[in-house]
Amino acid sequence: MSENKIILVTGGSGLVGKAIQTVLEDEKKSDETWIFVNSKDANLCDLEETKKLFEKHKPTHVIHLAAMVGGLFHNMNHNLDFLRNNLQMNSNVLDVSYATGVKKVVSCLSTCIFPDKTTCPIDETMIHNGPPHPSNFGYSYAKRMIDIMNKAYHEQHGCLYTSVVPCNVFGPHDNYNLESSHVIPGLIRRLHDVTEAGGKTFTVLGTGKPLRQFIYSLDLAKLFLWVLREYNEIEPIILSVDEAAEVSIRQLTEELAKAFDFKGEIVFDTTKADGQYKKTASNAKLRKYLPDFEFTPFPVAVKESVDWYRANYQNARN
Ligand code: NAP
Ligand code: GDP
Predict the structure, then answer these.
(1) 183, 209, 255, 278: which to mutate for ligand 2, most atoms within 8 A of CB?
(2) Which residues lie across from 281 on neighbouring strands?
(3) Which domains can be identified in the chain, with CATH numbers?
(4) pLDDT tens digit string along 267-281?
């Protein structure tokens, strides 16, 4: 008989945490108890609060999603906060996991922490090969340290602490705040405001030329369940759509305009930053494990995300 798993999901109220909750509605297993927590349950920057949270729930497994997260412009203005908050949270979660005998921890890196000056596609072996893009060095170094801690915990204590590396995530329950959001929720919010006001101009920040890989949060959530249940390497694994699915910000805006049935003008504000031009990630390792995994087609995922926001904007994280 398999042992009952108690799985604590930190950051359980966020974009990815909500998507895991949704996917579990169909994919829950009888030997798993899932607990989703957010900053109201415990501030994970605080060691004592972290200890109390773990004492209360006694998890055997942890999916560590909690983080200070934000888009390009939020990162550019808050590198110190991204560095300190994320270093503290990650260190507290891993240290308390070890102290309380947690069997497996899956933490979250990001493709935006990869080296700035690099060859593409980028793979899991290249995470530490040079400085990150200067726009988000705080977030990047804090996230890179998770991988270092995972290796050190494994080497010294034999722990199974691993990490996943998603590309840019989008979907229902995203952060739509214009100051701090990533590009897709930011543009959904802006286009929603424009169409509601009967406006004719949709303004996008930057040149529209940068390239990005975007993963639908519900696809990522399915992959998280697989990692928790099946993936037992310490080394990180990139969870991204294929390289061929990379799109420019301009293509993204056209897809969003379609989803909103917006027929006005799309204007690029080239006085605003572009960030890293591209950071194409290879999902070859993922494909080796799961050759047949099917990602939701981008236009379908964009349409579902737009429809969710239009139906829920009054209660969304604006
Ligand atoms: P999100 O929607 O911003 O949610 C962040 C979560 O972290 C929320 O549940 C929040 O709780 C919690 N949190 C923040 N500060 C906390 C603190 N001090 N103590 C306890 N909990 C705290 O983030 P997400 O987009 O789902 O991201 C999940 C993970 O994926 C993160 O590790 C992120 O770095 C990674 N990731 C995200 C993307 C992306 O494009 N979004 C891409 C690659 C990797 P409250 O709701 O209470 O504030
Ligand atoms: P990144 O993928 O880590 O760089 O983060 P973002 O999700 O913030 O995407 C940034 C890219 O989208 C840059 O090329 C920006 O110039 C572009 N962009 C266009 N409009 C917006 C917007 O309203 N918000 C954000 N965050 N980025 C935008």
Answers:
(1) 183
(2) 122
(3) 5-170+213-244 (3.40.50.720), 183-211+246-279+297-312 (3.90.25.10)
(4) 999 999 999 899 999
